[in-house]
Amino acid sequence: MGKKLTISSIKKQKGVKPLVMITAYDALFAKLFENSADMILVGDSLNMSFAGKSDTISATLDQMIYHTNAVCNGAKDTFVVCDMPFGTYLNKKEALKNATKVFQNTPADCVKIEGGKDKAEVIKHLTTNGIAVCGHIGLLPQSVRSEGGYKVKGKSEEEKEQLLKDAKAVEKAGAFCMVIEGTKADVAKEIAESVSIPVIGIGAGADVDGQVLVFSDMLGFFEEFTPKFVKKYLDGATLVKDAVAQYADEVEKKEFPKEEHTY
């Protein structure tokens, strides 16, 4: 997409052009995405997409660092966001220690922190110590066990008011943008209009400042379930299965390798 975006240029996109964010976990897919994506998120969703876990909670900091380095190697000219995994930012001291480890051991451009007003103090501590932060409000995957599942936010006036407070607190703490997940579209729109930094939606309607999707969902590789908010742009699982089945068939029939594949 040309010159790599910076925090300043990302903030300037608000109200100008919707931001395109997609997840990636390795150099191969990151390279494929870099010409279309403004930002690549190395999400702790890799715990589900790659590791076969039922949620994101057991992802570790070392895993995130490993995959962030891989993504940065594949998409050197794309803004890369590293998810801070569950348990790594419980307080200011631990958050700074772990986010510093990410910055020292990867070329990541920022880290992402789940939580609103309750995490504002942590976010401020990071941003005042040289760590760029992308916030994350609304449905919080790392809280799925404590909340008893994935629950859409913004259904009540009370929830809307809390989300507005969360967004403003995250902005005030110094985050340069934020993700809003699993939130009623009209509420997400109001939240995006209430802050001066970009709000990137996932399952939050079209009236925000950008969108993010998990690549294995949108490309149809993840078959266990498809969230309502995901559009499948490719039937990836079927294409891969068909290709591998053809390969297996040709091997069994000794149709592969042919002369052109032989030294």
From TrEMBL:
Its cofactor is Mg(2+). Catalyzes the reversible reaction in which hydroxymethyl group from 5,10-methylenetetrahydrofolate is transferred onto alpha-ketoisovalerate to form ketopantoate. The active site is at residue 181. The gene is panB. Binds 1 Mg(2+) ion per subunit. Homodecamer; pentamer of dimers. It is found in: Cytoplasm. Pathway: Cofactor biosynthesis; (R)-pantothenate biosynthesis; (R)-pantoate from 3-methyl-2-oxobutanoate: step 1/2. One of its GO terms (molecular function) is 3-methyl-2-oxobutanoate hydroxymethyltransferase activity. It is an enzyme of class 2 (transferase). InterPro entries: Pantoate_hydroxy_MeTrfase, Pyrv/PenolPyrv_kinase-like_dom, Pyrv_kinase-like_dom_sf. It catalyses: (6R)-5,10-methylene-5,6,7,8-tetrahydrofolate + 3-methyl-2-oxobutanoate + H2O = 2-dehydropantoate + (6S)-5,6,7,8-tetrahydrofolate. Keywords: Cytoplasm, Magnesium, Metal-binding, Methyltransferase, Pantothenate biosynthesis, Transferase. The lineage of its organism: Bacteria, Pseudomonadati, Campylobacterota, Epsilonproteobacteria, Campylobacterales. GO terms for biological process: methylation; pantothenate biosynthetic process. SUPFAM superfamilies: Phosphoenolpyruvate/pyruvate domain (SSF51621). 3-methyl-2-oxobutanoate binds at residues 44-45, 83, 112. This is 3-methyl-2-oxobutanoate hydroxymethyltransferase. Its EC number is 2.1.2.11.
